[in-house]
Amino acid sequence: METENVLIHARFAPNGTVVEISERPTALSPQQWFNYLSDRAGNAYQTLAGGRGVFRLTRTVVDVLKAESTPSAA
Fold this sequence. Notes:
Radius of gyration: 12 Å
Shape: globular
Helix content: 25-40%
Strand order of the largest sheet: 2-1-4-3
């Protein structure tokens, strides 16, 4: 069974705030999702030129992080 790799792309404003990030749960702002990923998967982050960066993760890890970041509806 192959492991699907996922690139989560982030774009930053000139002041350093995150303006766009992929795979974001709707309950979180782009900055909140970036902060969450940085706290839990910061070692998978790569800075790119032009105010961009990517997290390189597996689909399983992304799905777990998304589930953990969203408060469950009780």
